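Good morning C.,

I know you're traveling, so I'll keep this short. The sequence:
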Amino acid sequence: MPDIIDAKELEQKKIFLILASPGTIRERNIEIIREISTRGYHTVVITTNFPYSVLSKLYVQSGISLGSVSFIDAVTRNSIGSAENIPGVVRYINNPANLTDMGIAVTEVLKDQSGKKVCIMYDSVSTMLIYLSSANISKFVHFVTNKLRLMDVSGIFLAVEKGLDPMLMTQLTTFVDTVVDTG
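The tokens, ready to paste straight into the viewer:
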């Protein structure tokens, strides 16, 4: 399979919307992290889909070094009530609907990674629809894409194909530079 993320566009700090089928979204997540890591990037994964503990195990099982990945986990505290942050590894926020905390966490993690080649990956926009309206997700993604551009950082938004309403899909498409449908 060819690379999902074009290396030149990643170097140009482009922002991507990656669409995957419901059955392959986990595989796409792993493939994307592997691609980005092999290109020397540190990836910050903002996860609303899988807990940090699950993703980190999947990455290790797939041969991905966790030294090139850190996490903002919006799932664990929502599910089990408490979890302690591990500096440089994982930062927990209370739930996926808390966009203020998510935005603050992104800003702080990006500051911590200053000077490195960094890419942010949101997994997944589709899951956020469980907690938020399409309008709120659209506003948040617009905010984040502008922040990434201003901070000169690449970004990836992972979503289930056909899992977004047409208006949200149209808006997301206008916020990103490249849409990749991986099927």
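Safe travels,
E.
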